[in-house]
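User: Could you go from structure to sequence for me? I need the amino acid at each position, not a summary. Structure tokens:
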């Protein structure tokens, strides 16, 4: 371990500090290292440093990159953090251990079908479009309760948590607070929120999964 990746070490330290400030145990926050656009040689040192959870935003990219890395380190867990299309649901369920972008009926239907036929149960997060941005994926906050009930009752999907991506030009705290509130009133325990710029704030607001890319791997 002569060459620990500096960005990775700094992010780990920052998570421990944020947990201490929030009076939370450090193991209550799972770091997802977002490796999108980075190739295997860039990812390898982070795996060697002990990181096991990785995030990708495209099914195709993940499929071309991860199978050999997972074969070498079977404890690796892959998270799909980007939008999912129904026609990619089969590959997504086969490859990913968690899907953070469940946000519409067509995806629910495709996922339910694949989960059943593949007998695999990825951890599922519903994405909430807290800023109600038209260009962004996710369920509008006022539709979240209905959507979650429909996931459960109509599709038989086990949604474990919520995910959000705050608007870039706004303070993230109100968006994290809103996501946490929707999760609490729906009995959901997991919160996927916080990126390089704001993960300590997200931890303050109860994030259980932080998705950190550039602070670990550098600029894209
Ligand atoms: C790219 C991405 C991240 C990581 O962003 P950084 O700012 O590089 O940490 C987190 N979440 C999602 C959904 C992303 O697409």
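Assistant: Here is the amino acid at each position, in order:
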């Amino acid at each position: 371990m002569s060459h620990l990746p500096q960005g990775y070490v700094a992010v780990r330290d920052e998570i421990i500090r944020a947990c201490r400030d929030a009076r939370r145990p450090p193991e209550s926050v799972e770091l997802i290292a977002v490796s999108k656009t980075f190739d295997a040689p860039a990812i390898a040192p982070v795996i060697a440093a002990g990181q096991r959870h990785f995030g990708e935003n495209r099914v195709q990219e993940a499929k071309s990159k991860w199978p050999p890395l997972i074969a070498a380190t079977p404890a690796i867990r892959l998270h799909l953090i980007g939008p999912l299309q129904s026609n990619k649901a089969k590959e997504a369920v086969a490859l990913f251990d968690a899907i953070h972008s469940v946000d519409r009926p067509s995806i629910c239907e495709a996922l339910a079908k694949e989960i059943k036929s593949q007998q695999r149960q990825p951890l599922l997060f519903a994405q909430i479009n807290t800023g109600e941005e038209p260009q962004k994926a996710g369920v509008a906050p006022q539709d979240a309760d209905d959507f979650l009930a429909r996931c459960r009752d109509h599709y038989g999907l086990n949604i474990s948590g919520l995910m959000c991506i705050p608007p870039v030009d706004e303070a993230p705290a109100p968006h994290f607070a809103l996501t946490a509130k929707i999760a609490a009133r729906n009995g959901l325990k997991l919160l996927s929120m916080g990126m390089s710029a704001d993960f300590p704030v997200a931890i303050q607001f109860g994030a259980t999964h932080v998705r950190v890319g550039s602070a670990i791997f550098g600029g894209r």
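One structural detail worth keeping in mind: The pocket of pyridoxal-5'-phosphate is lined by residues 34, 36, 57, 81-82, 165, 195-197, 211-215 (CB under 6 Å).
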